[in-house]
Design goal:
This protein has 289 residues and is of the alpha/beta class. 39% of the residues lie in helices and 18% in strands.
Amino acid sequence: MNKPIVVGVNGSGGSEAAMLWALQRAARNKFPVVAVHALDDRWISPDFAYQDVIRESGMQLLRQVQEDAAKKEPDVDVRIRLGEGSPAFVLKELSRDASMVVVGSHTRTWADGGPMTDRALQVVAASDNPVVVIPEGQGPAGTGVVVGVDGSEESLQAVALAAAEADREGDGLTAVLAFRRPSWWAQRGMPGRGLAESIEEEDRIVLAESVAGLTDMYPDLAVHQRFERNEDPARALVAAAAHARLLVLGSRGRGGFSRLLLGSTAHAVLQRVPCPTIVTRVHAVKHQE
């Protein structure tokens, strides 16, 4: 039996979008779905008089989600699960036996206008399997699959997953690598000629090598390379995936430290998700600092 798609739900617009995306994928691929709601365990302490009310409220939400799902995709087996603890903890535990975890994003900010840390970031960092983040207010599905490339082992895993996703749906694949030149003040202490150009040429080779062989594996797959000169990687990926069906990222890149669970580029992209975005967790990669 196929492993289920686990979906985090909390009644928000983002979680509704996540549930719909998961249902549509499950219907196409014959997967069951598990809808999960996490209760803050501070509110269900034995000393708290209304713990039964809190639990029943969570179950009402889940039963409504299950009822709505049956109307949208009646052939999908949808189960419900009430967990206790933080959403990241609850979803991490369930991710071990899941094919993927799906959560919604949101666009809320702090009062001063700065970005609010999304719980999706915590879920992505904690999960043992790929996590899909669905933007709130998701419009009509786009076309094509975009994948971030930087030559790291994680990005190669992302390319493999993205190619399989694109081929399965008959989409094209666009691999994006962004090259950022050193700031002008840093360049003053660097050799006068050639170093930035050399790094740029190396990155062009990395991009080409990252997608080499894909057309042999998937003869009908159209593969495109997009090299962004002097651009921030996260900005380049958000722009490239603005009208894509799917964006795929590695959990970390070649600049990551082993103690970090989520790389800076993935973190930045997830704060302004342009389309459904998968962060891969295909297998563990050992890093040396």
